[in-house]
Amino acid sequence: MDTWMRFMSSDGGVVFGRVEGGYLHEYESLDQPVPTGAVLSTRALTPLAPCAPGKIVALWNNFHALAAKLDKPVPAHPLFLLKPAGSVIGSGESIRRPLSYAGKIVYEGELGIVIGRRCRDASIEEAAESIFGYTLVNDVTAADLLNENPHFPQWCRAKGFDTFCCIGPSIVSGFDWHAARLVTMLDGVERQNYPLADMVFSPAEQVSLISQDLTLEPGDVIACGTSVGVGSIKDGATVTISIEGIGTLSNTLTTVCELAL
């Protein structure tokens, strides 16, 4: 397995590459994984979200256990919404409560698929080859907005605020998800612990089926959906999401007043 990260350098530039032993071996880009020859100490760099997706495809009802709990039928095609690129933050950055919203904010710990090559109408085999690697996602939701208007469920508004898509800390290529578990902690208390093997659609199936609806580009992320244990985040609380072999994504919910201090 290889670990890939994205950083800001001291001069404000963005660098991407393979991380090993505290050093970044720089590559041209995610979609052009050609080494530049530069080797940089990660201690002199500021971590960013590991990719800059043009879009985030977020699945709903993609785990058998949650479908059973909600008494929902298992879908025949991935059910998804799109989160905007501007909602992305990396590990360690703050989730910001919107000024206009005082309601419940919810975490969802998820596996993220990072696309490595352009993908359209892909077979399962082509889809598998299009996966650059895997990361972690916290699909944050302003839950009270979903059904605020009884005539139109507001999925994109509720999930699309700035900072409402936490991704990181890295992308791991060659990761075997089949036996892995995702654990979500809220202020140190375990809230989610579920097997990725319980997914309705495997990662390759997700990429293949979604690519029949829209073109997936390098750097795009598919958030694979979550399972049981979703809950709300109080202001000041920290959510950590972990998968052994990928790492830990950690973000704290803050208010604008807290950020100003």
Can you put this structure into words, describing what you see?
By secondary structure, the protein is mostly beta strands. It has two domains: 1-47; 49-260, Alpha-Beta Complex (Fumarylacetoacetate hydrolase, domain 2). The chain contains five helices and 20 strands. The protein has helices spanning 64-70, 124-130, 155-159, 203-211, 256-260; strands at residues 2-8, 14-20, 23-27, 35-41, 46-47, 56-60, 79-83, 88-89, 94-96, 105-107, 109-115, 131-139, 141-142, 165-173, 181-186, 189-195, 221-223, 231-232, 238-243, 247-254. The strands form three sheets. Strands 1, 2, 3, 4, 5, 6, 7, 8, 11, 12, 14 and 17 form a twelve-stranded mixed β-sheet that branches. β1 (2-8) and β2 form a beta hairpin. α2 (124-130) packs across α4. The longest helix is centred in the C-terminal third of the chain and has 9 residues, at 203-211. The radius of gyration is 18 Å and the shape is globular. The mean pLDDT is 95.
